[in-house]
From TrEMBL:
Species the sequence originates in: Salvelinus namaycush
GO biological process, one term: nervous system development
Entry-linked InterPro entries: Kinase-like_dom_sf, Prot_kinase_dom, Ser-Thr/Tyr_kinase_cat_dom, WNK_Ser-Thr_kinase
Protein name per the record: Nuclear receptor-binding protein 2
PANTHER family: SERINE/THREONINE-PROTEIN KINASE WNK WITH NO LYSINE -RELATED
GO molecular function: ATP binding; protein kinase activity
Length: 494
C-alpha cells in the first residue's frame, strides 16, 4: 500500500486552502494591486481593520493591502484633507530602514468610507519574534548585533525627525520593527494620526503601554515620544524580554529591574537617557548616533563602499566585475610600512569578489549606514544648479535636511597655491564644542566669495547658521592675506 487515503485527503485539503488564500478579492482602481484572501500580521498597528497579502502586478512582488474603515462619513470628511496631506508626504519617504509606503486611495462608494494603502511586505518577522526565539534557545544578545540594530533604527528616526515638518512615528515597538534574514532592520510604516484617532483604544492599549512616553496623548505628538519608545526597545533588545510577571502590563518596576540587570555601564546609560521622564532632557536621534556606545570611526572600506554606491548611477552596469577581472591576483593593492619591522602587503588575491559584492549589497540595503556625517556630505560641490533642480523634481517634499547644531569654538585654515597658480587649495580645520574636529578641503579661486563659501557650509550642514558670519569674516581675512602675500600661509581663530 502506498499513500493512505487520509494523507491524500490532507494534501488535497491543503492545496484547496492554498488556492482559497490566493484568490483575488479586489483590485486597486489602477489595476496594479490585487488583494488576496490571506491575512498577514505586520505589527500591532492601531486603526487598521485588516491587513491582507496582495500582489504588485508590475513588479511581481508581494505587498500588504491595509484597510481602515470609517463608519461615520462625517468623521471621515473632517479628517480627509489632513489624511491626504499626510499620505502624500509619506509617499516620498524613502529610507532603507523604513518599510516602504507605496500607494493609497480613498473609497467612499459604499455606506462606510475606507482608506486603503499599500505597504512593503516584511516576510521575515518582527524583532519581538526574533528576541523570543533567541531567549528560547538560552542565548544572550550579541553586543555587536545590538549596536548594529540601534544605528539602523536611529538612522530611520533621524531621517523622519529631520523632515520639514518633522514626521513622528508614534507607534515604535518591537512588534513594529522588522528584521530580515541578512540582518537589515526596518521600522514599520508611519501612518497619519487621523487613522489612530479613528479607534478609541489606541492610547489605552495595555499590552504596549510601556512603550508610550508619559506625555503621549496629552498634547501634540513630538519627536521625543519616539525616543522614549526607542529606549524601551533598546532595553528589550539587550535583555531579550522585559518580564511582566504574568500581567498584561509591563510595570515601571519591571523596566527598572531590566535596566539594572545590564552589565555594560555605557548601554545602561544609553537606554536610561532615552526614557527620562522629562521629554526636554531626552537626546535627539542624531545625538544618540554620536553616543560613546555607538560612535566609531568608520573604516576606509566602508567609506569607499558608500562613495561607490552614491555615485553608482554614473557608472555602467557590471563595472565592478569588469574592473576586478583586469587585476593581477599577485598585484599589491595596498602596503602598510613599518620602520622597525617588515611591512605588510595586501594583494588583490586577498579580496574575494563575491565577498566584495555581498558587502556592497549590504551597504546599499542600509545595513551599514554612515552615522558620523551629516547628509550634506554626499552631495558634490560641483553639482550644477540645473542638476539640483532635477534632484528636487525627483524627490519632492518632504526632503530631509539636517542642520548642524554644534558651535565652532576654534578655526584653523591653511592656503597653498596649486601648481597651475590660478587657484589655491584651502584646508579648513574646525574644532566643535563637543571637542570633535571637522576637516574640510576644497580649491578656491580669487573670485570666490568668503560669504558664499560659509553659506555653502551651512547649506550642507557642516557648520551652524550662527557661525556663518564668524567663519565668513575669518575666511575673508585669510583669503585677502593669501592672494596679496606669500604663497603659503596659515591662519587660526579661537
Amino acid at each position: 500500500m502506498t499513500m493512505s487515503e487520509e494523507n491524500i485527503s490532507g494534501c488535497r485539503g491543503k492545496e484547496e486552502e492554498s488556492e482559497d488564500e490566493s484568490e483575488i478579492l479586489e483590485e486597486s482602481p489602477c489595476g496594479r494591486w490585487q488583494k488576496r484572501k490571506e491575512q498577514v500580521s505586520q505589527g500591532n498597528v492601531p486603526g487598521i481593520e485588516t491587513a491582507s497579502l496582495a500582489m504588485d502586478t508590475e513588479e511581481g512582488v508581494e505587498v500588504v493591502w491595509n484597510e481602515v474603515q470609517f463608519s461615520d462619513k462625517k468623521v471621515f470628511k473632517s479628517h480627509e484633507d489632513r489624511m491626504r496631506e499626510m499620505f502624500e508626504s509619506l509617499m516620498h519617504v524613502d529610507h532603507p530602514n523604513i518599510v516602504k509606503f507605496h500607494k493609497y486611495w480613498l473609497d467612499t462608494r459604499e455606506s462606510r468610507a475606507r482608506v486603503i494603502f499599500i505597504t512593503e511586505y516584511m516576510s521575515s518577522g518582527s524583532l519581538k519574534q526574533f528576541l523570543k526565539k533567541t531567549k528560547k534557545n538560552h542565548k544572550t544578545m550579541n553586543v555587536k548585533a545590538w549596536k548594529r540594530w540601534c544605528t539602523q533604527i536611529l538612522s530611520a528616526l533621524s531621517y523622519l525627525h529631520s523632515c520639514h515638518p518633522p514626521i513622528v512615528h508614534g507607534n515604535l515597538t518591537c512588534d513594529t520593527i522588522f528584521i530580515q534574514h541578512n540582518g537589515l532592520i526596518k521600522i514599520g510604516s508611519v501612518f497619519p494620526e487621523a487613522i489612530y484617532g479613528n479607534v478609541q483604544h489606541h492610547r489605552d492599549d495595555e499590552t504596549n503601554q510601556h512603550y508610550f512616553a508619559p506625555e503621549y496623548g496629552l498634547a501634540e505628538d513630538v519627536c521625543s515620544i519616539d525616543i522614549f519608545a526607542f529606549g524601551i526597545c533598546t532595553l528589550e533588545m539587550a535583555v531579550l524580554e522585559i518580564q511582566a510577571n504574568g500581567d498584561t502590563v509591563v510595570s515601571k518596576e519591571a523596566i527598572t529591574n531590566a535596566a539594572q540587570s545590564l552589565d555594560d555601564p555605557l548601554i545602561k546609560e544609553f537606554t536610561q537617557s532615552c526614557v527620562r521622564m522629562d521629554a526636554k532632557k531626552r537626546p535627539t536621534a542624531h545625538d544618540l548616533l554620536f553616543h560613546r556606545v555607538l560612535f566609531e570611526v568608520h573604516s576606509l572600506k566602508l567609506l569607499a563602499a558608500h562613495c561607490f554606491i552614491n555615485y553608482q548611477y554614473q557608472l555602467h552596469d557590471n563595472c565592478l566585475e569588469e574592473k576586478t577581472r583586469t587585476f593581477d591576483p599577485n598585484g599589491v593593492m595596498a602596503e602598510i610600512k613599518h620602520g622597525d619591522r617588515p611591512g605588510v602587503e595586501i594583494k588583490y588575491s586577498n579580496v574575494s569578489p563575491l565577498e566584495l559584492d555581498k558587502f556592497l549589497e549590504d551597504v546599499k540595503n542600509g545595513i551599514y549606514p554612515l552615522m558620523n556625517f551629516q547628509r550634506g556630505l554626499t552631495m558634490p560641490r560641483t553639482l550644477s544648479i540645473f542638476q539640483e533642480r532635477m534632484e528636487t523634481v525627483k524627490t519632492p517634499s518632504p526632503e530631509p535636511q539636517e542642520m548642524e547644531t554644534r558651535k565652532v569654538v576654534q578655526m584653523h585654515c591653511n592656503l597653498e597655491f596649486t601648481e597651475e597658480g590660478t587657484r589655491s587649495h584651502l584646508s579648513l580645520l574646525l574644532k566643535m564644542d563637543d571637542k570633535l574636529q571637522r576637516q574640510l578641503n576644497c580649491d578656491v579661486l580669487p573670485t570666490d566669495s568668503s560669504k558664499d563659501l560659509a553659506s555653502e557650509l551651512v547649506h550642507f550642514a557642516f557648520i551652524s547658521e550662527e557661525d556663518c558670519d564668524k567663519l565668513a569674516g575669518f575666511l575673508e581675512d585669510a583669503l585677502c592675506k593669501h592672494w596679496a602675500g606669500p604663497p603659503l600661509e596659515e591662519s587660526s581663530l579661537a
